[in-house]
């Protein structure tokens, strides 16, 4: 059968490609990239190819004069990867060791709400020693219903306890204004009740063995005071130590120690206010409320307009990335430093919806996504610049959920709805408080992701014969067990305290008899930041006097130096024989064209394949560190 000439050429090209793929690389080539014949696998490249003994770079990354955007991005990625091995080790001096221990979770509040034992019988209920204790309960079902805490003693019933329950606690330094974390919280729990799980038919007498905690709507208030004070605290200082052998007493003086804080700090320290540092939050300030960071655009009377801070980042042309930890993915389409503008598109990664193109003018906020009275996303072009490798770059900041907060409005934290109350005078936000709108139920019960409230019930039994004692005072010691019980409400801080201690040579390790006598094999890592460009164009390479090794990025059509080396080593220059998007990596330990300097080829049949080759090289470099 005669094959048409057109088809025979296709078959020839296919065979040529197959023969090339079979011939190159051999056993040394990895399964995910091609090593051209006559070149070595990059697994043979020593660390000294990339870095000198003093930690400075020993290599230049060469980008082609006709490089595609993907080649430029690949070069930038390789340069970034080199940063992980640019360091020098030296013997460490003046070494200290930091001992760190996660302490127990802080118990903010612990209230025993029901207590049945010898003390509550005799003290709270005034039962006499003989006769009054005869009816001591022997099981859960016999526990009395009037041993709940009524605010003064364990002599109330469940209804009295639930109706009078209240708790208040204050914590320091949990929120900030412009980065200064001086602002504590005042938290009140005004109502709390129990929803029994076991027994399910609980009648409200003795505490349930297991129960959920229920806090009704508007049962919790969390307040933050944003007025900042200078205040003083009286402290005793020792000015003369005691010498008891000679009868010399210790001498102390009372001094005023200056501190900075809000009203919570002043109250907890029993301090005296000297003056006011800040009257509150103003327009333009950034502050946190229960850990969420906001930028304030304006302040009204009883209201303010603010948005969540997403952060600021640099974007290269055609680069897509999330702004901060948000759901908004920004892509820079174009930038013009002369016109002071940039063009972007925005993708909502949560819904997949695309917005744009959006034109940003330098310094001018642009509302990108608006829903009713809320600006879901606002972008602002902060700066424009030119970069040798990345080209035009733009610095963009963003804010989310910009809206006006006024007293009575709703906010959400951890899927819980809260009512906000704003204390502001048109210039300053002086304070913010929030009250739960949703009923809160659970055990443990989460509050704003910050605190956990737990209910627990404990009952123990003791036999008279086991202890040889007349527990119920009836005049006999019998084989009878009597119970004691208590129920407790506990509020825990979700963030355990971290305890740190720094010890040096010669110090004793706390709690042991060991002393740190010395350290061995400890070295300091001295980072070496390049002082000269590490990425250059192919036309800037001095072939007569090369000063480093070279990583050539891009195909022979994009990179002049790659083309010269392919010709010198008789490598196939028709990238169509590399059918399929195969990454190409090859190592020349001593290149004749570059006066014996080493060379790594990073290429591919397409820009995408070149990018894959760059990724493989980056992973190899990372393994050298």
Summarize the structure.
This is S-layer protein. It comes from Thermococcus guaymasensis DSM 11113. This protein is mainly beta and 625 residues long.
Task: Report on the architecture of this protein.
- With 625 residues, the protein is mainly beta.
- The protein has five domains: 182 residues, Chitobiase, domain 2; 36 residues, no CATH class; 203 residues, no CATH class; 51 residues, no CATH class; 95 residues, DU1608 C-terminal domain (Tick-borne Encephalitis virus Glycoprotein, domain 1, Sandwich).
- It is built from eight helices and 37 strands.
- Strands 7-8-11-27-26-25 form a six-stranded antiparallel beta sheet, with helices on one face. The chain has a six-stranded antiparallel beta sheet with strand order 15-16-17-24-23-22, with no helix packed on it. Strands 34-1-35-37-36 form a five-stranded mixed beta sheet, with helices on both faces.
- β36 and β37 form a beta hairpin.
- The chain is elongated.
- The N terminus is likely disordered.
Topology:
Blueprint lengths: L4 H19 L35 E5 L5 H14 L4 E5 L4 E7 L4 E10 L1 H7 L23 E2 L4 E3 L1 H7 L2 E11 L2 E10 L3 E6 L11 E6 L4 E6 L2 E13 L10 E11 L1 H7 L2 E7 L7 E4 L2 E9 L2 E14 L3 E3 L5 E9 L4 E8 L5 E8 L3 E7 L2 E14 L3 E16 L3 E4 L2 E9 L4 E8 L3 E3 L2 E3 L3 E13 H4 L13 E13 L4 E7 L18 E5 L7 E3 L11 E5 L6 H9 L14 E9 L5 E8 L2 H18 L1
Parallel strand pairs: 1-34, 1-35, 35-37
Antiparallel strand pairs: 2-33, 3-32, 4-31, 5-6, 7-8, 8-11, 9-10, 10-28, 11-27, 12-13, 12-14, 15-16, 16-17, 17-24, 18-19, 19-20, 20-21, 22-23, 23-24, 25-26, 26-27, 29-30, 30-31, 36-37
